[in-house]
Design goal:
Elements (H helix, E strand, L loop, with lengths): L3 H22 L6 H28 L8 H16 L4 H25 L5 H22 L3
Helix pairs in contact: 1-2, 1-3, 1-4, 1-5, 2-5, 4-5
């Protein structure tokens, strides 16, 4: 079972991976529509990260964040995938794949979590809803 601290740390790591994925593609050529959608998604992730840090601060916790090496590798992998060819469909496909990984991780964590903190449970649900919404947003660009 995941305890409250582990669940909140997992939420923060998932959010940070989403932020990295989006920031890694924002300098690439893309249509204004997908660029606007990605900026909106990044704002959502930023808000979720702020909420997670606020919950941790209220509890006196220092969250386990994403390892800097993982951050660097994720950015490099994204840029490498885009070097082969970059268009809206390719970017949308990469974003959907990342969101699907986030949904899977979130659902697995949810099943392993005892849900004894309603604020952390609500934030976890909010992240899952965000990931699902992001997938739907990207469908039109595939």
């Amino acid at each position: 079972m995941k305890d409250n601290f582990d669940m909140l740390s997992s939420i923060i790591k998932t959010v940070q991976m989403g932020q990295i994925g989006i920031r890694s593609v924002l300098d690439s050529p893309m249509s204004p529509g997908i660029q606007k959608a990605l900026h909106s998604q990044l704002k959502e992730y930023d808000a979720l990260e702020t909420q997670a840090h606020e919950l941790a601060k209220q509890r006196g916790w220092k969250l386990t964040e994403l390892n800097p090496a993982v951050r660097t590798m994720a950015d490099m992998m994204t840029k490498a995938k885009l070097s082969v060819g970059c268009n809206d469909s390719r970017i949308a496909s990469m974003m959907v794949q990342g969101n699907i990984r986030g949904v899977i991780k979130g659902l697995k964590n949810s099943h392993r979590y005892d849900h004894n903190d309603p604020q952390i449970s609500a934030l976890s649900r909010k992240l899952l809803d965000c990931e699902n919404s992001n997938i739907l947003q990207m469908e039109g660009y595939l």
